[in-house]
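Pilot study result, target chain (289 residues):
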Amino acid sequence: MKKILLSILALGITAAVTAQSNQAPAANAILVSQTRDGNVVTSRYKIPHNSGRHAEFDVHYAINKANITPAYSGNPQQIADLKDFMAQTKDTTMHISAIHIVGYASPDGNATQNDTLAAHRAQSLYHYAVNTYHPKQKIDTTHKTFKWSDCVAAVEQSAIPQKEQVLTILKSTSHSEAQKEMALRKLPEAWRYMTANILPQMRYADIEFDYGVDEFVTRTTTVAATEPAKPVQTSQPTNNNNNMVVVDEEMGIIIATPRHESAEEKREERKSRKENKKQGKEVVEVVYW
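Predicted structure:
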């Protein structure tokens, strides 16, 4: 009956997913870096993921107990795996979106007491997680008491004595939970097997994480070779002085004049400056020696 722990630790979740693609990046992609080698541009994008993955860890309890015993049953491995997982949550590429804790109780015994016991187990794991790891996310807690019918799958896969009789009792729809337990107790060998191998696996609490890991995508594109910018001669502003060269570039109007200028040339130069100033173009004087 125990939920199967996903083997997420073996996947190396701290290493963000990396892919090579020449497709256009996702709409939420963030450009991390960009380099150019000749006419090849390599861009690296981060695609944030807040969900899509799940991790689960179980802590088992002794019968009628709700306190966590680290050395009990399979707890040492589960607690160690939880510790490793929480250490990896410090990776900035990993994002936890939700944390859930569910406490469980086996069906044997008083139903009301079992419900209380399941709730206490959920609370004990909650306090352990909060006090040990101080997660930023809110932790939701709930609890559940198993019914005898929940034992069917485990019994079918087991080597329990008198299996067919046991299954008939468990699947019955005409008997109450208390009546089913009484009937099972009348099968001593089967009951001993259940109390040793099946019911203990139903006394636990689990903590579940929904999370995502950012993906990194590298994209290469080919672009046209870059050519040096070439000055473009313009007819503006107009000037009849053959000794003056006017070039319109991105930085504004560049006026190139000879070193020695006549009075007429200087007047034309000033006139040209005023005209271009009105047009909002910066005028830079370049003197040729």
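One observation from the pilot: The longest strand covers residues 94-105. A full batch analysis is planned for the follow-on phase.
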